[in-house]
From TrEMBL:
Domain RmlD-like substrate binding positions: 4-282
Classification via PANTHER family: DTDP-4-DEHYDRORHAMNOSE REDUCTASE, METHIONINE ADENOSYLTRANSFERASE 2 SUBUNIT BETA
UniProt family annotation: Belongs to the dTDP-4-dehydrorhamnose reductase family.
Gene of this entry: rfbD
GO biological process, one term: dTDP-rhamnose biosynthetic process
Gene Ontology MF terms: dTDP-4-dehydrorhamnose reductase activity
Name of the protein described by the UniProt record: dTDP-4-dehydrorhamnose reductase
Annotated GO CC locations: cytosol
EC number: 1.1.1.133
């Protein structure tokens, strides 16, 4: 029987990349966003699932406005916790495998070594708290799930750090970029390919996983690479976090250990600069 895959949050970065890659596997896809399915409405979600025969759901929907969440916790909680719970319940009742996308923001960033899945989360922002609570709703509701935490996501689609840097470079002669937060920039297309590979493998190695591109960078390093690789001439100044206060605290260290992911699925994870080259080429072709 052909797989039928529901993708929520279809207009976001990851949803858009999954749409772009949809014809690379043998499956039917249904891409939805808020205008077609409100995941915070349990009745809507239940009827949506019972009218169809989904084999998988990839939940890319989420409230991701990290700073805005500090003053709008109600909405962040509604989407990231209640919406996730509704999907998990519907997936369980209809025997659908759920891929739920989570974040490095579930950690406080105080560790000096990469975060493994065994580290107990300790979020320091409303966004991080609601994403962790969403994870917990999945874990307590069902068994056939993959929770994938990712970090520093960018794409040729939507708003993200890469596109923001390129836009600002056209408007300014110099920029200040944070130098004391480190992580692993992650090309959403790589993550999309990895998820589709797990589906194709028909893996049942359910659980919590970490996925980001290989390698480590600060935001400053990331910006410098964007400008170097795109041959953009602009002066970039390193800034400490203290010079750029934001409503939400960010983890200082967001590097995640991906060894469980590599071992479980035998998937090679590209180095972040290689993937940045690929993304910039796609943006150039656009």
């Amino acid at each position: 029987m052909q797989k039928e895959i529901l993708v929520t949050g279809a207009r976001g970065q990851l949803g858009s990349e999954l749409n772009y890659l949809a014809n690379t596997i043998e499956a039917r896809f249904k891409f939805v966003d808020l205008d077609e399915l409100d995941i915070t409405n349990q009745d809507d979600v239940n009827s949506f699932f019972t009218q169809r025969n989904f084999s998988h759901c990839i939940n890319c929907a989420g409230y991701t406005a990290v700073d805005k969440a500090e003053s709008d916790e109600e909405t962040a909680r509604k989407v990231n916790v209640l919406g996730t719970k509704n999907l998990a319940i519907a997936c369980k009742e209809n025997n659908v495998t759920l891929f739920h996308i989570s974040t490095d923001f579930v950690f406080d960033g105080n560790q000096i070594t990469p975060y493994s899945e065994e580290i107990i989360p300790s979020p320091i922002s409303v966004y991080g708290v609601t994403k962790l609570e969403g994870e917990n709703e999945v874990i307590k509701t069902m068994t056939n799930y993959f929770i994938i935490r990712t970090a520093w996501l960018y794409s040729s689609f939507g708003n993200n750090f890469v596109q923001t840097m390129l836009r600002l470079a056209n408007e300014r002669d110099e920029l200040g970029v944070i130098v004391d937060q480190i992580g692993s920039p992650t090309y959403a297309r790589d993550l999309a390919k990895a998820i589709l590979s797990i589906i194709t493998q028909e893996s049942t190695a359910y659980g919590v996983y970490h996925y980001s591109n290989e390698g480590v960078a600060s935001w400053y390093d990331f910006a410098q690479s964007i400008f170097l690789l795109s041959k953009t001439n602009i002066k970039v100044n390193p800034l400490p976090t203290s010079a750029y206060p934001t409503p939400a605290k960010r983890p200082k260290m967001s590097v995640m250990d991906k060894s469980k992911f590599r071992t479980s699925f035998n998937i090679t994870i590209p180095y972040w600069q290689s993937s940045l080259i690929d993304c910039l080429k796609v943006l150039g072709d656009k």
